[in-house]
Amino acid sequence: MSNIEIAIAVVVVMTLVGLMFGLVLAFANKKFAIEINPLIHIVEDILPKGQCGACGFAGCMAYAEAVVINPDVAPNLCVPGKAPVAKMVAELTGKAAAAVEPKVAFVKCAGNFSKAVRSFEYKGVQDCVAASLLQGGPKGCQYGCLGFGTCVKNCPFDAMTMSEDGLPIIDNDKCTGCGKCKSVCPKQVMELVPFGIHVAVNCNSKDKGAVARKLCTVSCIGCGLCLKNCTHGAIKIENSLAVVDSAICISECNESTCLAKCPTGAITTYIKVVPKQA
Amino acid sequence: MGHYLTLLASNIVVNNFVLTRFLGLCIFFGVSKSLNASIGMGMAVTSVMTLSSMLAWVIYHFVLVPFNLQFLTTAVFVLLIASFVQLLEMIIKKHASTLYNMWGIYLLLIATNCIVFGVPLINVENNYSFLESTVAAVGAGLGFALAIVLMASLREKLRLADVPKALQGLGIAFILAGMLSLAFLGFSGMISV
């Protein structure tokens, strides 16, 4: 074949092959078209995209799809988005919006390196889950924060840092209350507390008073002095650990009298700020 | 039968496309961070590669060879694979939504990947028959899946290791891939096809 003939053959073959593939694709596009509700994409755009899973779905996309398609899925499940997102999702999907109670994560432990006794030196994998598998971790107190920062690494909103003395610090402005840190903590030391709570117990130890005190200087020993000083009955002692009923604490109390008598300082003033977006 | 088994085994371990021929490295590093994703990717690559090399064989032997246009192989195969992956994505999305949720997102990633493209080309170069090239493609896909699953398992373990700061992330991944490659070098010469 001469060069011209080859050139013609190339053009013809490439055109035909390209045309064939193009037609097949065009045909397939019609034949296999799926209608996707455009509302799903609008709802997904509103969601914070932390992919934290606090709503109970696999991710923001999965929740957007479920909330649009399934009438039984509530519009207020997105915890990080708080009230504004719940409201917008409710408007878009035509569902009744219920309020989202704004919450933030709180570390129920104040036993840093200097205050809590350590039973051995741990040199293994620097991760709380790994450390807790070895005799429950290096801390004497079996309920306290291990301080390897698994929660910090898993925070989808970059709201946590690790302090020098081995306790996580939560940035209340960034924390969305998604609860990821709570679910990854092997010691269940994280708790979600409502915004505006006056006092919180900085301890998770269920040991009896004498044991708890020996292991950590700032532990709750379950003495009950805070309970006697609370005029509203918002505090209970469970398993030698003080527990604050947040609803009563927020709505009825303003004076925080319980704090004054705590012998170890395990109960502290907590968030006085008003919720940002409520 | 023995010949096909040798071909399969040769492409899975001895001539592993990722670890001895260094094809498909971008997805090998990109999707090997978690084991689940890497299994999905391995399945997607295997199936796309098998089907596309079957199609490529047909096109090569019934369109390009009769017109004496073998020099167009590269261009035609690019066109073929890109549109075939699109088509496959549409079909799976419509008819197998579970499968689509599992590895649909990886499909478009491999649309013009070198390993998916390289296997049909190498098959054509070696003058394989239809059955031979299909078996070779299955082997290459399984070999890729094996490599990426091994890599992902190692990288998941690595997340807990105390890696020097300068090597964190891709740096240590490349070193690992090099070691895996050295290990696979031990298979060389075991089977010659």
Strand fraction of chain B: under 5%
Number of strand segments of chain A = 8
Count the strands of chain B? Answer: 0
Number of helices of chain B: 8
Q: What is the residue-averaged pLDDT of chain B?
A: 86
Backbone shape of chain A: elongated
The profile of the biggest β sheet of chain B is: none
The helix count of chain A comes to 10
Overview of the molecule:
The complex is a heterodimer of chains A (278) and B (193). Chain A is α+β, with helices and mostly antiparallel strands and 278 residues long. In chain A, β2 and β3 form a beta hairpin. In chain A, α2 packs across α3. Chain A is elongated, with a radius of gyration of 28 Å. Chain A starts with a helix and ends in a 9-residue tail after the last strand. The C terminus of chain A is likely disordered. Chain B has 193 residues and is mainly alpha-helical. Chain B has one domain. The mean pLDDT of chain B is 86. At the A-B interface, α1 of A face α3 and α4 of B.
Give a quick rundown of the structure:
By secondary structure, chain A is α+β, with helices and mostly antiparallel strands. Chain A has helices at residues 3-31, 38-46, 60-69, 82-93, 128-132, 150-154, 180-184, 209-215, 225-229, 246-252, and strands spanning 103-107, 160-162, 168-170, 190-194, 199-201, 235-238, 241-244, 267-269.
Overview features:
heterodimer, A: 278 residues, alpha+beta, 3-methyladenine DNA Glycosylase II, Chain A, domain 3, Alpha-Beta Plaits, 2 domains, two-stranded antiparallel ribbon, two-stranded antiparallel sheet, 10 helices, 34% helix, elongated, disordered C terminus, B: 193 residues, mainly alpha, 73% helix, 0% strand, globular
Question: How do the helices and strands line up, and which of them pair or pack?
Answer:
The complex is a heterodimer of chains A (278) and B (193).
Chain A: H1 3-31, H2 38-46, H3 60-69, H4 82-93, E1 103-107, H5 128-132, H6 150-154, E2 160-162, E3 168-170, H7 180-184, E4 190-194, E5 199-201, H8 209-215, H9 225-229, E6 235-238, E7 241-244, H10 246-252, E8 267-269
Antiparallel strand pairs in A: 1-4, 2-3, 5-8, 6-7
Helix pairs in contact in A: 2-3
Chain B: H1 2-14, H2 25-30, H3 35-64, H4 73-95, H5 97-107, H6 114-125, H7 130-158, H8 170-185
